[in-house]
Design goal:
The complex is a heterotrimer of chains A (484), B (486) and C (95). Chain A contains 16 helices and 11 strands. Chain A is of the alpha/beta class. Chain C has 95 residues and is of the alpha+beta class. Chain C is 35% helix and 9% strand. In chain C, a hairpin with a 2-residue loop joins strand 2 and strand 3. Classes of the chains: A alpha/beta (484), B alpha+beta (486), C alpha+beta (95). Chains in contact: A-B, A-C, B-C.
Amino acid sequence: MNDITKLTVCETLDALKSKKFSSVELTKSYLENMEKGRHYNAYITECADKALKQAEMADRNYQSGNNRLLEGIPLGIKDLFCTKDIRTTAASHILDNFVPTYESTVTQNLLNDGAVFLGKLNLDEFAMGGSNETSYFGPVINPWSKDKDLVPGGSSGGSAAAVAANMCAAATGTDTGGSIREPAAFCGCTGIKPTYGRCSRYGIVAFASSLDQAGPIAKDVKDCALLLQSMAGFDEKDSTSCDIAVPNYVDFLNKDIKGLTIGLPKEYRPQGLNEEVASYWDKAAEYLKARGAIVKEISLPHTKYALATYYVLAPAEASSNLARYDGIRYGFRAEGKNLDELYINTRTLGFGKEVKRRIMIGTYVLSAGYYDAYYLKAQKMRRLIHNDFMEAFKQCDIILTPTSPITAFPIGDESMLDNPINMYLNDVFTVSINLAGLPALSLPIGLSQNGLPLGMQLIGKPFDEATIFSVAAKIEEDAKFERK
Amino acid sequence: MAEYIIETAKGKWEVVVGLEIHCQIISKSKIFSGASTEFGDEPNTNVSFVDAGMPGMLPTLNKECVHQAIKTGLGLNAKINKYSEFSRKNYFYADMPTDYQITQFRYPIVGEGNICVDLSDGSTKNIGIERMHIEQDAGKSIHDLSPTKSFIDLNRAGVGLMEIVTKPDFRSPEEAGAFLRKLRSILRYLGTCDGNMDEGSMRCDVNVSVRPYGSNEFRTRCEMKNVNSVKFVMQAIENEAKRHIEVYENGGTVEQETRQFDPSTGLTKVMRKKEFAHDYRYFPEPDLPPLILTDEYIDSVKNEMIELPDAKKQRFIEKLGLTAYDAMVLCENKEVADFFEKAAAGHDAKKVANWMMSDFFAMLNKKHLEISQSPVSAENLGALVELISKEVISGKIAKDVFEIMSETGENPEKIVEEKGLKQVTDTSAIEAIIEKVIADNPDNVAAYKNGKTNLAGWFVGQTLKLSQGKANPQIVNKLVKEKLDN
Amino acid sequence: MAIDNETVKRVAFLSRLKVEDDKIEPTKEEFNKILQWIEELNEINTDEVEPLISVNNVNLRMRNDEITTGNCREDILKNAPSAEYDYFAVPKVVE
């Protein structure tokens, strides 16, 4: 019976509609997988009872013919989305007892479409990390691990791992510098970070407000298209949300890509790029060429500076966004003789090491005398990086790059833990896209020699997720990647 | 105007003052959330998840707050900036749930402007406005419920504020006081802030420094936070200036610091030294894109603008012939000015102004009434003045009529009619009374005839008395003389 | 622009975080490494570049002045570590 968890969301919907199985049966199967897969540590909070109730409701809706877009589909929710009456921790000690009394817009959209929530998925603390090792609730194990436990990528590591291990039909993620795409790539899943402003940020615990975007991590391109369809949309509660109609993404999967121009940025092929990564990249380009797309080299000249720019802007915003975790209104409190002591004790004990590091770096780059040298400089660099993409998109429709220069690495890798910059370097192919606010999807292209998934990234023009889906569907078809 | 010079045994000093005034914006809901701005409700009831700084909550800008800010900016004769930007001001503060304040920093919504203030000697002075920006207010802590704890109420958190920053243009406590009164008057005219300093809806920070008289330097200034009345602001300036002078004259230096004004002593004490000054780490608020205003929108607000106190005052002087002082007093409060205009319509405006400045205000004061509660309506006050102008009643009788009006609210014609107070101008009737007075007082007549001519006044008084004040005094005057001299 | 121990302490206090005395030196070194890496941005002259503040060129929307929320004190106080008399409670604030 557990095979039904291997189906994609779209296949599952067909089965539910034709009453091959019920949503309750389906939900139970996923709950069983979750139990069996506890060692992956993908979930922080499971909500089986609630999920089963939702599933019963979904089954009634199928009975009455009132089934909606995602009726009865069991999803995992990254624990950065506030969910009403379900604990929301951001994988931090400082929020480990926080139960929101409100629902994020994105999860509300999913609920409105009939989705079932299985639980809240693990992540890097406050989404700060690229390996899911900074979680207060411990690291997530990549289901593709063999002899050694590998990281699932981060920060949406729980989401990618849960999808890969069939512990949910699909999951939500958030992406500030690659947090959907990198874990999707490491776990052989497909994930898309839409254009900044496409999904509402209302009710998502903020990391870096000008970069954060929600998106799905799913088993394939079509599921991503369907999930994004549900999650996206204008929200007046988020002033950065854009009032632009959301097209029916699934319709674009079969769209011909003949004549489309695919750009390959030369800066993404530095000296010493992993050969396997490079050859898969070429292969993906070949697939598209064979289908009539025009492949050409383009240039994104300021690529080199994207990481440093990101590691000024994101911590700066984070230092301010995370100030509110002060032990007064919600979350963990450590006592103190006076208010400052209470703040300091609460925050020192409540936050983990990486979060504290970023808060302090962010505080420093904004402080008097350093603002111009770091923060303002980074904002100007952001303009140049953004302009690079706008120039490039005058010559091409889609940009194709690898998602990550490496495959999943072992948990506790010392070179990364000892030097945060080494960890930061993993984001080299993903952060520019957040800086430019563009949509980008990662999909698996194949396995490395050591049997680990590698991802390709497709970057689109602002609000043109549809073309990304058209192209991604073709690569997916040709790559024939086998899921776990 | 007379210069404000502080003279000591050692020299002459001048004070240099700038003000920063926080004005609560009048709006139904908060600047970044849909919670009510109502004052005085149960604790933490007018609080949204946004106001409480809950995780994932985002601000959305209230249109009315922007509208009110533009109106105020226009009232300050200031430039409205088509591009403005919100920023975060970061500091930990128990009353501020996000531990940053959304404010405007590099690009405020209102730029430079000026206000003309009226000084007691009748002169005026222009005070420069540096800028005005909009921001959110903080909540309030209650410290007196427990010896060991403070309690936080977020009802006020997120109420819209306008922060007006003046140039350091004040040279005396009086100028600062006059400015605050004028600003309050403008805000109330516009309906953008109620200006109640005692309730905290208008709060003033005062920056004071001194310099030797005649010098142009700017010396170290001290800032006094939240001084909550016009009187206290003036007192704070006076005493802080004295403190600075004393420090300098004793060979010391003034430290840049934040001080607190103590209303009970009138003195200031240190709150925060410069080395503990906050580092606010301002940066553009990533949750709110820049605010772009169109010319059409700004023009539409311009078209809504009403006549403000200065323009009104000028019109009262030029068109209605009021004195500058009367015009200033009548224009300070829009309701008063409106009442006056209504009362003066079609009547002698100067006389109406005199009546308002004297008996009318005295009556309101005595009865502790606001002008809106006045038993004497504007129309009735105008009618009363008209009765005097037309010599239907004398000024003296008018005072009695006014007395009755302020008790009953009745119209003066009716009172005059019913009580038979009409002035007697019929000379034969008056002559009859005069003749009676003359007949009854032969001794005084004799004295008059013997040269005590100032007794004429006594005869006039007796005649008026007998007429119960109704006889026209001018006619009585004339006739008494005629009769006595015959 | 290398930072010193005093700066580490000041930044820690501004962040309301405690850095133990024996961690100040290593923290400083780590920060200097990161800042040095960031300073590669100085290779590019940006004197004439406008800072990018908002990536999606939306003008700030404004909402109508209506009361849409509030009267949810229970929800507001629900997660408070300490609440009394319908207030959030904290150690006595002196200032």
